[in-house]
Amino acid sequence: MQVPGSEGQPRAGVDPAKARLRATINHSRTTTAETAADSAARTARAVTACTRAEVVACYLSRPEEPDTAALIAALTSAGVRVLVPLLRREPDWAWFTGADDLVPGPHRIRQPRGTGLGGAALARADWIWLPGLAGTADGRRLGTGGGWYDRALGQARPDAVRGLLLFDREVLDDVPTQSWDLPVDLLVTERRTIRVRPE
Fold it and tell me: Can you state which reaction this protein catalyses (predicted)?
């Protein structure tokens, strides 16, 4: 998720290997359609994974990404409070109050209208769903570029669980990482849940 004004921060293109892999996966995402059944299966796995969380932070997906709209709807229906990103130069968050309260934001990503809670609001989250393009069974994550979440996670609690939603073909044996790339605790696809750190 590249955000304008992120100069001097981790961003796509710093590592040529990351840039090549991102290009390959982005092409696959824009040319491969997912079935409704596969999307529903991933959502069900994700809901089950974070069932004990009281506050969940979750990104608002673009059409080519694993869908988060159904996940957020299921969580809010179950009484879970959901934080969603406000895409600004510095990470910011707002409570999800319904799809009708979202407006277009940078890079075709919807976001809540109005004032945010600040970056420190992420410390309220028990669980954080991160966007990504690929991951490994040992928890390495290839982000979407721009370093927004790498910066945001500095405000997360150490015990907050970090999850990654992927298409199953994006679970790889290896992904390039750099010093600021934080690992995730589990990966969820339409076919499986991979736990890196036992609960």
Answer: (6S)-5-formyl-5,6,7,8-tetrahydrofolate + ATP = (6R)-5,10-methenyltetrahydrofolate + ADP + phosphate
Binding residues: 18-22, 60, 65, 141-149
Are 84 and 93 spatial neighbours (Cβ–Cβ below 8 Å)?
yes
| Tens digits of residue pLDDT in 148-161 | 888 899 999 999 99
CA distance 94 to 118: 8
Taking CA 107 as the corner, what is the angle to CA 150 and CA 75, rounded to the nearest 5 degrees?
65
Binding site residue list for ATP:
18-22, 141-149
Q: How far apart are CA 108 and CA 61, in angstroms?
A: 9
Q: Please state the domain extents for the chain.
A: 16-195
What amino acid is encoded at 82 in this protein?
V
What lies within 8 Å, CB to CB, of 138 at 6+ separation is: 183, 196
Residue 64: how many CA atoms within 13 Å on its side-chain side?
13
Please report, in range form, the residues annotated as the binding site for substrate.
Answer: 60, 65
pTM attached to this predicted model: 0.88
The CATH architecture of the domain made up of 16-195 is 3-Layer(aba) Sandwich (3.40)
